[in-house]
Amino acid sequence: MTTIEAHRLEEIVRGFGSRRVAILGDLMLDRYVWGDVNRISPEAPVPVVEVTRDSVRFGGAANVAENVASLGASASVVGVVGADAAGRELLSLLRERGVDVSGVVELADRPTTTKTRIIAHSQQVVRADREATAELTVAERDAVLESLERAVDASDALVVSDYGKGVVTEETVTAAISRARSEDKTVCVDPKESHFGSYGGVTAITPNQKEAGNAAGLRITDEASLEKVGWELQGRLDAECVVITRGEQGMALFMKGGELVRLPTVAREVYDVTGAGDTVVSALTVALAAGGTMVEAANISNHAAGIVIREIGTASVTPDEILRSFRETVEDGKNG
Questions:
Q1: Is residue 246 part of a domain?
Q2: In a domain, 42, yes or no
Q3: Could you tell me the CATH number of the domain that includes residue 182?
Q4: In the annotation, is 190 catalytic?
Q5: Structural domains of the chain, count
Q6: Is residue 302 part of a domain?
Q7: What is the per-residue pLDDT across 24-73, written as a single tens digit (0 to 9) for each?
Q8: Which positions ≥6 away from 91 have C-beta within 8 Å?
Q9: CB contact set of 92 (below 8 Å; sequence gap of 6+)
Q10: Predicted confidence (pLDDT) per residue in 213-236, tens digit
Q11: Domain annotation covers residue 249
Q12: Among 26, 162, 190, 278, which one carries the catalytic annotation?
């Protein structure tokens, strides 16, 4: 099955259920307002959306936690929410998915990060954000670090989900990576460009092509610039692997020791890439924690991403869906 034998794939995926993953990052609530547009407003040259339904989904580190739980692993999330209705709703939804939220710190003077998207005829019309992006105060940071220590100690692996909303700082990420790596635990990071200097020594980091190029100060336009960026970041961070996600061009893995592995995309249809990075880092981490090699884990995360981008908005994937995706790829290869 591509680069993973069927029995090996089954062994890794079936091992997801015994793994425990801690997630540090920026928790978000994604709201969707769905409707139709049949006229333009007489008040301004904007479409009038006739609302037909509303829905909520997980965003940021909350989406990572939900993805980890959907894969069958135990998820424990560390971050902050506001003392508001959105925060209560987000925590309630996470609990329903079986996510441990005991490490979430509630802050009275900070809103829960909420993104509201208005969708008409499967197209996003506008997005409204409610958020605070300032770094946490010393007291707030200390409360997060206390929660983080407990979560990391009880887990097999750590994901850092950095959306630049104030939770992931040089202090928190350094403490998180240090504690996890001191116990030889897997650490994977979905990065923010401004914090690249803090991610040294991680197991894997998963920037998209634009983020990687910006972090290295070189736009990726061809294979030569891709390789220059990938190896520059791998050397700078001393990471076991830099996984650059490339959309329709798949993934490129820059491995410690000098090996470069390219994985073609497995996506058949692309409706929305929102949250695909969350799925990649979640599946990669769980697969590594379950005993997969870096290439095996990247293959699994590649298939997981190919599944979720078929849906509008953030989504998650199950072990059975991953196994089915591998089987379909093999069948396509036989029939191609």
A1: yes
A2: no
A3: 3.40.1190.20
A4: no
A5: 1
A6: yes
A7: 999 999 999 999 999 999 999 999 999 999 999 999 999 999 999 999 99
A8: 81, 101, 104
A9: none
A10: 999 999 999 999 999 999 999 999
A11: yes
A12: 278
